[in-house]
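Q: I'm writing a short methods note and want an example of a predicted protein-small molecule complex. Could you take the sequence and the SMILES for adenosine-5'-triphosphate and return the bound structure as tokens? Please keep the output block clean; save any remarks for afterwards.
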Amino acid sequence: MNAARPSLDRNFLNRFGILIALITLALVLSVTTDSFASASNLTNVARQVSINGILAVAVTFVLLTGGVDLSLGSVVALSGVVCALFAHPGEYPLVVPISMGLITGALCGLLNGVLVTWGGIAPFIVTLGMMTMARGLALIFSSGKPVADMTPALTNLAGDLGPVPIPVLCFAVVALLAWLFLGRFRLGRHLYAVGGNEQAARAAGVSVTKVKLFAYGICGLLTGLAGVVLAARITTGQPNAGQAYELDAIAAVVIGGTSLSGGVGSIRGTILGVLLIGIINNGLDLQGVSSYYQAVIKGLIIVGAVWLDRRQSRS
Amino acid sequence: MNAARPSLDRNFLNRFGILIALITLALVLSVTTDSFASASNLTNVARQVSINGILAVAVTFVLLTGGVDLSLGSVVALSGVVCALFAHPGEYPLVVPISMGLITGALCGLLNGVLVTWGGIAPFIVTLGMMTMARGLALIFSSGKPVADMTPALTNLAGDLGPVPIPVLCFAVVALLAWLFLGRFRLGRHLYAVGGNEQAARAAGVSVTKVKLFAYGICGLLTGLAGVVLAARITTGQPNAGQAYELDAIAAVVIGGTSLSGGVGSIRGTILGVLLIGIINNGLDLQGVSSYYQAVIKGLIIVGAVWLDRRQSRS
Amino acid sequence: CKKPAERKEGEILIGFSSRDLSAEYTAKLSEAIVEYAKTKPGVKLVMVDAQSDVQKQFSQVENFVAQKVDAIILNPCELEASTPAVDYVKAAKIPLVLVNQVTKSAGDSYIGSNDFEAGRIAMEAIAKKLNGQGGVLMIHGIMGTSAQLQREAGAREVFAKYPGLKLIDQQTASWDRAKAMALTENWIQAHKGKFQAVFAHNDEMAMGALLALERAGIKKDVTVIGIDAIAQALTAVKEGRLDATVFQDAVGQGRGSVDAALLLARKQPCPKENLIPFQLVTLENLSSFLK
Amino acid sequence: MLRACQLTKTFGGLSVLQEASIDFHPGEVHALMGENGAGKSTLLKMLAGLYQPNGGSIEWRGQSVRFQSPHDALSQGIAMVHQELMPIPDLNVAENLLLGMEPVNALGWVDRAELHRQAQSWLKQLNTDLDTHQPMRRLSVAQIQVVEIAKALARQADVILMDEPTAALSNHEVTALFSAINTLRQRGVAVVYTTHKMDEVFRLADRISVLRDGQLVCTKAAIEFSPESLIAHMVGRELAQVFPPITTTPGDVILEVRGLTREPSFRDISFTLRRGEVLGLAGLMGAGRTEVVSAVFGLTPATSGEILLQGVPTRITCPAEAIAAGIGMVTEDRKGLGIVPAMSVGHNLTLAALPQFSRSALLDAAAERCATQTATTDFAIKASSPQQAIRELSGGNQQKVLLARALLNRPAILILDEPTRGIDIGAKAEIYALIGRLSAQGTAVLLVSSELPEILSLTHRILVLRQGKLSAELDPRQTNQEEILRHAMPQ
Ligand SMILES: Nc1ncnc2c1ncn2[C@@H]1O[C@H](COP(=O)(O)OP(=O)(O)OP(=O)(O)O)[C@@H](O)[C@H]1O
Ligand SMILES: Nc1ncnc2c1ncn2[C@@H]1O[C@H](COP(=O)(O)OP(=O)(O)OP(=O)(O)O)[C@@H](O)[C@H]1O
Ligand SMILES: [Mg+2]
Ligand SMILES: [Mg+2]
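A: Understood, no commentary inside the block.
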């Protein structure tokens, strides 16, 4: 099928604008600062994007179905707190706090999914409610205080494995699995179908409920993972952590070309989006731009990159 | 046409669940607290909901077209700061700070609209960018400090006119005009058409660009108004005011039955949503519920009310 | 275009991560640090803003280490959660000055005051004003933040001391003036006549409470005290509206931290701790705080 | 009056219309004919300002014009009935019909009474009586189509472009539409008309232009064509007999429906379907045919009644269960219940049959490609590649993909709801042949169609539905259109 070629190119071009923005930004930063292109700084960038990266992959699943998850940040805090509560030295083996964190996240996600599917409530409302509730629960479970005194076994998870930081490894593995899943698995295909035309997917025999439950559940599970990684990194279960993380994650996904109305998007795009946001944050700090102007510039770059991207893909 | 009747009833029933939730909540609060049902507390509630109310009406316009506006909170802060900068006593007549605040809001809104229509960028990204930029500008204009020393002429706008607080009056007028506009005017109906099926609206000769620009512009203008009212209320242009106001506003609108995918919704529903959120906040404070549990209960009530509502309208 | 992060030979490069530049007190502190560093020849200071996000601040610290700065001034977001950032800098053997907030691990030097102290001073003032008798409302900052926790703990100690003082109600207003105003309005409905004082964890919220009480016409019966001594609060004290605030010496802390960072960068001895005490600001001693 | 001069259109390098030049005259019905994907809709959309041409120009009353948007074309007096139905689901019928031209009173308010009055009078012209207060989402596809036509009439344009306006209509409304078109013709309106229904062309058209693969083949007066020569021009070859003779005799009962009811759409529906049998379901628009078959397929389950598969009572509550039980369906609502627009042709094709293409949970891309390849050839689907998004296909080609999708699962019972909607004459013949083949292989087919010749020639048995109730069971060999209509008409 030689006809496949132009379509492939078009797909590539679809995210070309973001890639150009990314490369331009990286070049500018390499030239204007000594430190950007250094190995240690690039490792830094990778480490810094890993939590937002995991969250962005997580929320990609939900966004593909045409839903949204506003509870990411709060669930990160809640799972971090739960994980930390079970992570006091000498109490439980390492697997307990980690699984408790993951389970907490997955339960929150599943509850979102149940309310969206069986409850028939708009995802925005469901996850907004979860955002508030999870934050409250994080405060209740921690009595409003940071849960400290975590076993080094867990906090080491934020360290390095050889030259690679473990959070980066987590992000890479999660992204790889998600990519495989969405591209190669039946359920992955169903996710796109449900997001693209829910009624038609149902008529084609797809169990919309199952697909959505799955999407929200996986999103929750990965959010739990992000919570555990964050807790390990800051060696604390912090009940007020993760404020507004959902916005950065969703922004990364949408920058990467995933449509908020569902059915269109890719993990590759999400990764580009995550990197773009990460490099903007890192670069503006390296440049020593005052934080007020940072806000303005960051906004401009994000809108500009997406605009470039859309222009590219249209022409 | 007797056929009009069932449609009206059905419309009423559509929001019946929220109404039930609202009345139940009010009854519970009247019984369990001495103060809820008092005139002074009800005035209080009205005063407190007025800013969220104006914002909710504002964002209803944008949501109806199928867009979203995440920049509400930041634009409230920016317009408040700009208003306050022109409101030092004895510098300008009252009309200047007010119009500067309104113009600032309208400009932000129009810029959003331009980027969404001509730029072809997703509203989520555009307004997320604006959220960051407006916050940055608010901080830059105010040098990061609250802009105090406002003329009493302006701060009096947060006072009362007879028995009615002026912010409540603003909200009522805004809601009334918006209701009339959306229900009765051609452009208002076209807003629904664009949100319901953009292609169809375009094919029918509706200028989608004009309609969207209008929606974002009005949203910005009303956000500017909310900024001015807030500045008057807290007697300061506060660059970090309005954090996450967009979430409360959008939540109120969605609770009121407006669909995030556009084309469905009403100002009446929005008002019910605003009141529900307002009464929850007021009631929880009156009940003296601890902050941690407040979060959880607030989330539960919102999700529960919407669930009830959807059940009602389905059966 | 100048390249801010580029270093000239022999120049001392200091990295400074501020907790949140959109909070007035921190902004004041940060400005003091930046301005004071400018007066020192051969010193270059790069400031970044963590926007109250621990993880973001940690990243910024990592960036500083990657840039091999000569010293870091850290205005930590949190007591517990910012500890790994401190450990990270210490492991990289870069001199570290903490300002305004301690962490579990100590830096090479700490400049600042103790939030616990601030809460205690403010509450003491209330106790004194009420003669140890009466109802108090407490408006918290964002729950779980160090400042909120410590200011509350300081206040609690005073409650323990005066059995006549009753905590009628408490609630968070997330450091936000509009939220504190709405909260106070609701409290006026719920607890009218039952409270004689409001203690807010910062001045922003105290101003909100003050406005609500004034609108309700009952300010004269209620004592309102905040913390931070922001400009508006000082003006309000001067006008006799706000009863008191607690002064943190932003300029003193700022200068002290730059001095300490320079001493450490030049491998000179530097005191481990430089505590700049909080002071209660009332109408009586106001003049010395107004510039 | 309106002239297309060497109009050319390409999509992403793919040329779909090459230098087409046609004149349209006032008071004339000009039919535009061609196979699926020939470029008819593309040409019309350019004239209506929906697409911008890549080459050539449009002349309007002797002047070269550029339409940047449908608004421009409309303001010049060019209106269009779109092939893809475009309802705004939550606005009511009147608002949909008069969108953009709502009557306003002195205050600038929309005058609702007047709005509904006007809307009703336009619908009256099409012999349709609809409650103009109900939201569009409650309408059946056919009703939506009527509203779309009325919408174009209401513009009172000088040129009306009609892109398969009768695709979803039954005879009753078609007749009304034709009389409306005749009135327009007398008023001096230029009507451009595309259709895949041959009889309509010869009843209506004054002149006919034929498009083939994006090229204008010829423009001639209608009387110069015979049906055969027209088809030959369109297809490029002679097409023999359209309806294959039915040769199979039905086997044992595979599906039995007893007392199926869902108020208010239908009640007490009972029938049987045998292996190899083709059962026709006839009725007027809104009679409830779609609702009945949707209930059998589990799309909108019935509230009472029984479905027996090979004698075994089976509960079917969702399409997944129906598919698992060996039922396949092609719905009439292509856009709403058929395609996933953003997905590729290949992925749309295999969507209902993914288990076939998986090894364990992993999808077998090679097998999928292979199946897609086969289907594209078998059904002559015109797509630039299997990776092309299905929304970029012409309407008829989308329909073919959906047919192929339903067949991938090799269903024992196949429900076809208006399967030839929007399909060209050549492809129709292929579908008829396919129905014959399936029946010969023992597949039971339940065929819903508004085209009575189809029903009469293809089926073993005909059920007629009237206002939600079965009114007759007829033998196609001993009945005719008149009798069917008599049973279908409300009494
Ligand atoms: N938006 C688009 N992007 C890419 N290709 C398109 C697009 N729209 C149409 N095409 C292609 O243009 C060709 C002509 O399509 P068109 O819709 O004009 O056909 P048609 O003659 O109306 O067919 P039908 O009878 O099936 O409606 C088709 O091959 C189709 O795939
Ligand atoms: N979602 C719905 N809600 C309410 N009524 C509906 C809905 N869908 C269809 N109807 C009504 O049910 C009746 C049966 O419609 P159905 O689509 O089954 O008719 P049909 O015989 O298939 O005719 P056609 O498809 O030609 O319109 C119609 O009167 C229609 O208006
Ligand atoms: Mg067509
Ligand atoms: Mg039908």
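A: Remarks, as requested: The two ends of chain B are 25 Å apart (CA to CA). Residues D 138-143, 170, 265, 283, 285-291, 332, 450 surround adenosine-5'-triphosphate (ligand 2) (CB under 6 Å).
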